[in-house]
Design brief:
six-stranded antiparallel β-sheet, 9% helix, mainly beta, disordered N terminus, 1 helix
Length: 161
């Protein structure tokens, strides 16, 4: 009986998907103590995407309570880059914003600006195609004190050169 249980457990272990932890590369920027971000903007050049896999490249802002991240993400899961904005990951009822596909080597821009009512407006643009998306996120209760640029790989290795 013991050998049957052991064999069944061994077979089950082979059939279960392997869990993989994300590999992270990141830099952060913090304003002086007691000060908070009111905007974050910049440009990204989309690297050549080697294959469809879970590649996320993103600038973002994290709040003092570490409850999530307000981010603009280059997402390579489909095999083509997609660029859009959203709040991740603590409040799944907040919808992800609009976005667009991005060619390898294209430069895209992002601008996240705190509005007078406390909400945040995110605008992402692809100047070469005219693609753009503007979204408003009700994040007025958040004070952002951590600027992040992250490369998040869930499965693939770093292979951008």
């Amino acid at each position: 009986m013991w050998s049957i249980k052991t064999s069944c457990l061994s077979l089950l272990a082979l059939l279960l998907p392997t869990a993989r932890a994300a590999t992270w590369y990141f830099v952060t920027f913090n304003p002086p103590s007691g000060e908070y971000f009111t905007s974050l903007s910049g440009n990204l050049v989309a690297p050549t995407l080697p294959r469809a896999a879970t590649y996320y490249l993103w600038p973002g802002l994290q709040p003092t309570d570490n409850s999530g991240v307000y981010q603009n993400v280059l997402d390579g899961r489909s095999g083509t880059w997609w660029f859009g904005s959203g709040w991740c990951c603590s409040n799944p009822s907040l919808p992800w914003g609009g976005g667009f596909n991005v060619a390898n080597g294209a430069t895209v821009s992002f601008a996240n600006v705190k509005q007078a009512d406390g909400s945040w407006t995110s605008t992402v643009k692809n100047p070469s195609t005219g693609g753009s998306a503007t979204n408003n996120f009700p994040l007025g209760s958040k004070n952002f004190n951590d600027g992040v640029f992250a490369i998040e790989l869930n499965g693939p290795s770093w292979d951008f050169g």
